Amino acid sequence: MTTEIRSEALVAVIGAGTMGAGIAQVAAAAGHEVVVVDAAEDALERGRATVAKGLGGLIRRGKLDEAGKAAVEGRIVWSTDLARTAPAALAIEAIVETIEAKRSLFALLADLLGPDAILASNTSSLSIAALAEGLPRPERFLGLHFFNPVPVMKLVEVVAHPATDPAIAEAASALMRRWGKHPVAVRDVPGFIVNRVARPYYAEAFAALGEGMDPTTIDHALTAAGGFRMGPLALADLIGQDVNYAVACSVFEAYEGQTRFRPQDSQRALTENGRLGRKTGGGVHDYSAELPAPRFATDGPQPRTITVGDPGLLAPLIEAAREAGLTIKLADLPPATLRADGVTLALGDGRPLAERKGVDVLIDHARDFASAETLLFTPRAPLAAAVAAGFARAIGRKALLLPDRPGQLVLRTLAQLANAAADAVTDGVASAEAIDEAMRYGANHPEGPLAWANRVGHASVRTALEYIAEATSDPIYRPAPLFAAP
Fold first, then answer.
1. Is 371 a known active-site residue?
2. What is the average pLDDT across 290-303?
3. Other residues' Cβ atoms within 10 Å of the Cβ of residue 359
4. 56-92 pLDDT tens trace
5. Which of 93, 122, 127, 157 does the annotation list as catalytic?
6. What is the number of structural domains in the chain?
7. Which residues pair with 13 in a beta bridge?
8. Are residues 267 and 160 in the same domain?
9. What phi, psi does 372 have (nearest 5°)?
């Protein structure tokens, strides 16, 4: 039996929704003849319109001309007749996310398609092995999990179940590369990589929201200091709170209630109250009006002198202060600590400010202090807050004040993302490199969570998680084995 999927081969896509239409567009753009099958005529029309809109966007950006658009559209056939898939070398399912519906479809496809055909599911959460049960050629079945919007997002999780022929998985990966995608091999586990490892990005934001933190502050902190493209609450609103919460519950249940994946009550309340995000006009944020700007701290007086010892990760801030003309003096201070006009500011290490004797202001972490637009401070008193805000203004940054909580916000989120990624390595989901690639190409993270942990240092990540776990009495924060002390 052949394993190669040739460029001239017919590709069948079953399901004309957003995902199916996107997969069809990508396959046709790569030169394949494509047949898209859906039982509903109106779904086919919407799918056709989705492709036309996607290709139109490429024309507006100068990446395609009208002739190219016509050629891609001409390679796609839209049909309600499943028998049209019979000659396909590859059939990709993108229908409703229920195991019964998918199994029924694959049973039909196995009878229609030839013995050399490869069957693939675009499921985001169901077991590939479970979907393969009963198929006559399970060795030619695997998962190809694309990400939305398919024409834009590079990642494809290539999921082999125990019976998948390794040559089939490699042939599928090679095809994805020819389609301009970034395939990553993933073990068949609940949530695969992205839907498993990304959970803390949302969970930590909803935990902070549940504690009463301002949602605009949360989203701005994670973009301006955390370096993410979209804040977690706004992203959940975009995805749909019902969809995002369902994934959280699915992963939690699939891992038999493992606390690392515990859903958050504040998100559950949104879904129960019908505040599902942009599609209902409001979720965490209200989309009937322009979103409010973050409540930045009132500027304080510019400090005259900055005293520092070993700046550690705060070095870019000290350099910015020097460039701004502030006087820099060296003194015997703890690492990552500075003193501005008698006020002591220290980088957070996971402990709440109440436990940091001699520290007046905690500075939350930034992914890159050199480029962070906003600094996040937890002050002990109003005077300390004013000095911190004045320091931020002096070096061209804005200041946001955070309540005193273990790990503050950005450090806690980054550390817990790294924790989830480290668990995935321990569980053999994928290699550390593959996990980081998946989070960059599939979740648009600016940096892999394990790359961040390596850069900051495993000891620092472990210590922060231990402090957070102790202060919250919550085992969800216990460090993963990968971060264990040598």
1. no
2. 90
3. 21
4. 999 999 999 999 999 999 999 999 999 999 999 999 9
5. 157
6. 3
7. 36, 92
8. no
9. -60, 130
